[in-house]
Amino acid sequence: MKKFILGLGLALLAGTASAQTMGVKAGLNYATLTGNDAENYDYRPGYTVGLTARHGFNSLIGVQTELLFTSKGAKREFSASGVETTEKLRLNYLDVPVLLHLQISGLYFEMGPQASFLLKGKQIAEVSRSNTTNITKTVITDNPYPIDFGYAAGLGFRAPSGFGLGVRYNGGLKDIDDEGAFEGKERRNASFQLTLSYVPGF
């Protein structure tokens, strides 16, 4: 399944890249969960890295396709009867956004849909009482839906050298939980990204 997902993403990317320009990007992903059942979650820092390709219709408008490995999730803290608990949710996805890209001089804007394919999920619980801390790690890859759908919107600046700096918001459109304790609950992925990219000949 993972090989199929990767192959599909590469095929989409290659289709765009063959027409125009291709490059790399990497940066920080600041992720959390939103929804009626996600009020107590805070942002968790992660990362994103991958490939980007753009097909330009003219000097202003184009379509940008990306293949990004992104660490998402969230964290929350709570206490009861002198026991402090920190729970971290790590969800690793392969993100495939297809974005309308508008560029004026070096300034650009982008927005469009995104499909995300779950690669691995892990829950880490740190339970502290007195001077003792116990850490439990549980693989929960089977709990979220294997595919998430959302949208991405952002802006940035690209220099004539091909280097660019961008800020993007990713929002989920569907609840992530298929099984487990949160099945049927309203929790969706959400994150902010700060990335550095390089696209030669852009």
UniProtKB/TrEMBL annotation:
Lineage of the organism: Bacteria, Pseudomonadati, Bacteroidota, Cytophagia, Cytophagales
Ranges where the Outer membrane protein beta-barrel domain occurs: 22-177
Keyword tags: Signal
The protein's name: PorT family protein
Signal sequence extent: 1-19
Tree of life domain: Bacteria
InterPro entries given in the database record: Beta-barrel_OMP_2
Keyword Signal: yes
Organism: Pontibacter mangrovi
